From TrEMBL:
GO terms for cellular component: ATP-binding cassette (ABC) transporter complex; periplasmic space. Coiled coil: none annotated. Residues 140-543 form the Solute-binding protein family domain. Residues 32-41 have a biased composition (Polar residues). GO terms for biological process: peptide transport. It comes from Aureibacillus halotolerans. Residues 43-52 have a biased composition (Basic and acidic residues). This is Peptide/nickel transport system substrate-binding protein. Residues 1-27 form the signal peptide. It holds the Pfam family SBP_bac_5. Residues 29-52 are annotated as: Disordered. Keywords: Signal.
């Protein structure tokens, strides 16, 4: 271990030196990059400020501009393709991004290790109804929706469509698309057997479902019987939520909905899709045709009407191609319809090492999801030859949280892991400084969600007090005398999950516990977790971002969570202290946003520290971000994933090179 730590510290010193040298040249490089942009395209100081002004006037309709690529298509003029009041892009705050008016053209090359999925493209494409710039959760502005108002009692929310908004196939987005999504899908018990808890009063499973009312052609209300101050934030960011809960292309989907479809045509479509023509046939067909955001890269997404900046036009075994949406609803302050970049080409590569080679050789224009902190020194070393820039940004997650499933179906296991003394002992045995040095090169810090005390002697005493005596096999027994083990089952979903789990295994074995690790396929891991078959695992959560409502409850108490989300109809009733924690989580959304992010979040942190529901050993981790030196409009600070949200603003200084 000493030799390993010495090697890591040598790497860390090398990384710090490389980052320092990079910082010294950053200003010169930035100035050089900007000089490549035509002078007439640079934003004046005034317009930079106005980019982010909430009341910035929309450019005159006669002054809108479009990509030369679109001019070659047989389409209506850009003035007719945009809504009456297009969205002036504000995905990043003014302190994060020195915005430049961009050039049109080029292909953005990305890489993914997953079939039918590219996380970087997903976040670039996702369009929530509302927006929180920089994904900071500090303010909420319009996005797909033009805006909203809320009554003083925080019960009724009035939302406004953008007049003239259009789907990617040119069809208008109307109030019928909203009504269809709500009344014919959300409130359809065949399609939605369990009404979503987040759309009930106060976001609770026990609350009354929301009420929906159409005011006029552009306005509708969502009302609740209890205050729900956090509702707009849930629409803006939680779970990378998209618009599809409240807006669906009714003109495309009605032929597959039994209320509207011709019975004979519907039966033929069900058979053609290879579904049984029973009572579930139309449900299966509709769900297949209704392509939601996390399916935007599936083959079924080709031709599906969307509101994204890029639409899928091709998906084969090696490549996914997304091309600009000529009806996209956003513009810059100069009146140029976004996105600037014409298309995104995502290449599927199964081997992570080949992905790294492609990044280092400059074949990738933007990479966040596929990067690894332990390769940062290598990224910096390859910048010049690869023609890219590698930077460190903030990670929006705690990347390696680990969980003990307290509802796993084994009485002995439950007796042990539900004892807070046991969880405290495990936390005391975690050498978090070693984790930071070994895995993260000092580029993170210990978590303030749980205690960072390292005391193996105290940990052993707690296990002794529980009656976990050492057996003849050299491992501690459960208090009832039965064998006890902690079998970690993980997926290789990120570069640090497997090696860090191995470190945890070693540190907990030092307490005389029988701890092991096994790696399985990601799909199987998901299936086993859903079936409550994982006893111990490691995965990331969005714990630092309170508004993401991600507290790992589906890993440390899946049956309890099921009980809570279904108001007791399913799962297993949790003990009182867990119920109190759930009630605190619900309070986040019944409280006005500014109060939720301070007072309520502080209470949640305290509860996590007191009860150790799960383990978050580190926080404020840095994440490498790699992008072409030819790419512009990338923020210099903030969350790495926040840059993805502003993808429509990216442009190439010289598109002819792409």
């Amino acid at each position: 271990m000493k030799s390993t730590l010495f090697f890591v510290r040598v790497q860390c010193v090398l990384l710090v030196v490389l980052l320092a040298l990079s910082a010294c040249s950053k200003a010169e490089e930035t100035n050089s990059n900007r000089s490549e942009v035509n002078n007439e395209q640079e934003i004046s100081e005034k317009s930079v400020e106005e980019v982010f002004a909430k009341d910035f006037p929309t450019p005159e309709r006669s002054n809108y501009l479009q990509s030369p690529t679109v001019e070659k298509m047989d389409l209506p003029p850009v003035q007719q393709r945009l809504p009456d009041n297009p969205k002036i892009t504000n995905e990043m705050t003014e302190t994060m991004l020195d915005y430049q008016i961009g050039n049109y053209g080029g292909t953005l090359n990305t890489v993914t290790g997953s079939v039918n999925w590219d996380a970087d493209v997903f976040v670039m494409n996702v369009e929530p109804l509302l927006n929180t710039p920089g994904i900071l959760g500090e303010e909420i502005t319009g996005n797909v929706l033009e805006g909203y108002e809320v009554t003083p009692d925080q019960k009724t929310f009035t939302f406004h469509l953008r007049k003239g908004l259009k789907w990617s196939d040119g069809e208008p987005v109307t109030m019928e698309d909203v009504r269809f999504a709500v009344e014919d899908v959300l409130f359809n018990e065949e399609l939605m057997p369990t009404f979503p808890s987040w759309l009930r009063a106060s976001g609770k499973a026990s609350g009354e479902p929301m009420s929906f009312n159409v005011i006029d052609e552009e306005s509708f209300t969502i009302s609740f019987t209890e205050p729900y101050g956090g509702f707009p934030m849930r629409l803006a960011i939680e779970g990378w939520r998209n618009y599809h809960d409240f807006i669906k292309p009714a003109h495309y989907l009605k032929p597959f909905h039994k209320t509207y479809a011709d019975p004979e045509a519907l039966t033929a479509a069900i058979e053609e899709a290879d579904f049984e023509t029973d009572e579930n046939g139309w449900i299966n067909l509709f769900n297949k045709k209704d392509v939601i955001s996390n399916e935007m890269a599936h083959p079924e997404a080709v031709g599906f009407p969307v509101l994204y900046p890029w639409t899928l036009v091709e998906n084969n075994k090696t490549t996914m191609l997304f091309q600009r949406n000529p009806y996209y609803f956003k513009v810059d302050v100069a009146g140029k319809q976004l996105p600037y970049i014409d298309e995104i080409r995502s290449e599927y590569v199964q081997d992570m090492e080949i992905i790294n080679l492609k990044v280092l050789s400059g074949e990738v224009d933007f990479a966040r999801e596929a990067t690894a902190l332990n390769k940062m020194a290598l990224y910096k070393k390859g910048e010049e030859n690869g023609g890219y820039q590698a930077g460190l940004y903030d990670m929006h997650i705690t990347p390696t949280d680990f969980f003990l499933n307290m509802t796993y179906e084994d009485p002995t296991w439950r007796e042990v892991v539900r004892d807070e003394r046991f969880r405290e002992a495990l936390n005391l045995a975690l050498n978090k400084e070693e984790i930071i040095d070994t895995m993260y090169y000092g580029l993170t810090e210990t978590s303030d969600f749980i205690s960072d005390e390292f005391n193996v002697q105290k940990a052993n005493q707690l296990l002794d007090d529980m009656g976990m005596k050492m057996g003849t096999d050299g491992y501690r027994k459960a208090p009832n005398g039965e064998d006890f083990s902690i079998p970690f089952v993980v997926q290789d979903a990120a570069p640090d999950i497997v090696p860090l789990t191995q470190i945890i295994v070693q540190q907990w074995e030092a307490l005389g516990l029988n701890v092991s690790m096994r790696t399985i396929d990601g799909a199987l891991w998901g299936t086993r977790n859903a079936a409550n078959e994982l006893q111990a695992t490691m995965i990331w959560t969005h714990t630092p971002l309170w508004y993401m409502a991600d507290w790992g409850v589906e890993f440390w108490g899946p049956l309890w969570e099921s009980w809570w989300l279904t108001n007791g109809a399913e799962g297993e009733e949790p003990p009182d202290d867990v119920k109190e924690f759930y009630q605190l989580l619900d309070k986040l959304y019944t409280t006005p946003t500014e109060q939720a992010g301070t007072e309520v979040f502080a209470q949640i942190r305290e509860e996590m520290g007191d009860h150790l529901w799960y383990f978050t050993p580190i926080q404020n981790v840095k994440q490498p971000l790699i992008f072409s030196k030819n790419l512009r409009n990338l923020a210099e600070e903030g969350y790495a994933i926040g840059l993805n949200f502003s993808g429509e603003q990216f442009f190439f200084a010289d598109p002819s090179k792409e």
